[in-house]
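Hi, here's the filled form for the chain we discussed.

Project: internal
Contact: R.S.
Residues: 395
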Amino acid sequence: MKNLFVKTKQQQYWLDQLASISESIKAEAKEVDEQSRFPFEAHKLLLQIGYPKLTLPKEFGGEGLSVYDMVLVQETLASYDENASLSLGWTLGVVGELYEKKLWTDDLLSSFAQEIKNGAIINRAASEAATGSPTRGGRPGTNAVSKEAGWLINGRKIFTTASPVLDYFLTSAWVEEKNQIGYFLIHKDAKGLSIEENWEMSAMRGTSSHDLVLKDVIVPSNHLVELPSHPSGGKINGWILHIPATYLGIAQAARDYALHFANHYQPNSLNAPISTLPNVQQLLGDIELKLYQARFVLYGVAEAYDDPARRELLVNEMAVAKHTVTNLAIEIVDKAMRVVGAKSLQLTNPLQRYYRNVRAGLHNPPMDDMTIIKLANAAIEQQKSTEHQLQNNGE
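And the returned structure, exactly as it came back:
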C-alpha cells in the first residue's frame, strides 16, 4: 500500500537509505525502551546519512525535502524505531519551518545552515509545567532580561525531546522589556544550562524528553531570534505533520507483526494458521482499512500544504490530520494485539511497546479537544458568513 505514496526518485532514494540502516535501528529499539535511554546508535547512523539536513532547502546546501517527503521518511523511520523518529523529527520540522517562513534574519539563517549541514540537532523548548501545552497560550515562567552582555535567562522547560543530543535549544521566554514572548537560540554549552534527567514515562521512553534548566544563562543580544506576533499554533505550519507520521509508523509496525504472526501461528487445534479464520481476517481487514484512511488523510494534507495555491486555503487541516492519524493508529495497534492475543502483553513482545508508545500521540500538539472545538467554531462562523452573504445578495 505504501508504494502508492512514493512519487519521486528522491523519495525512493531516502527510503532506500533508511532501509540500509534499518536492521541496526530495529535491533536497538527494544533495549532503548527497556533502559529508558536515548537511541544513540540510531542517532549516529542517521547523522551518517545526513538526516538532519533533509528539510534544509537546497539553496542553503540541504536536501530540500518537502512536507510530503518528510512525512514519508518519518513514517518509515518510525516503523523501525518510533523513539528515533519522533526525536529526529523535531529537528526536521523546526528546520523546515524556519527556512520556509524565514523566521530569522538572512545572515543567521545562512550561518545556521552550515551547522545543520554539519549534523546539528535543534528543537524548540517551549513547554512548562505551569503552562501546559504552549498552543494553549500560557505565559512562560522562563524570563529574559536585557543586560549589557546580552540576555539573562532563567527558567525550566519540560518535554525537551532529544535533550541528550540537542546542539541548540530554541527556547521561549517572557521578555520583560518587550512585554511579550520571544524565542532565544541557546547553544548546549552555554554556561548555566543543564539537563535534569527526569524523563520517567511509560511511553516514548527513548525520547529522553528531560527538563531543560536555565540558571543565569547569558546569550548574545542577536540570539533573540523570534518575536511572534501570534500565539503558538496560531499560523498554519505543515511541518508539524512529522508528529502523526511517527504514530502512523508505529501502526504499520504493529500491523506487520500481527500479519506475520497470523500467517505463522497454528495451534494444534487447527489445520491451518489463524490467518484462515474469519474473525482474524476481520481484524486484519479492519487494520488495512484504517491504514488506508490514515494515509490518505495525512498524505493528502501534506500534498495540499506543499502546493502554494492550495496552502492559503488551509485552516484546520493540520490538526485534522494529526487527530485522525493518531486515533486511527491507536485503534490499529489495539486490533493487532487482538490478533496476537495474550502473547502481545509479554514484555518480550514489541506490541506492548507499540501499545504504550502510540498513545503518547494523544498528548502531542495539537490536542484533540482543541481540534474539535476549532472545527466547530469554523463551521459555525462559515454558516453565519454564508447566511450574511445571502441576505446581502437579497437586498
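Let me know if anything looks off before we file it.
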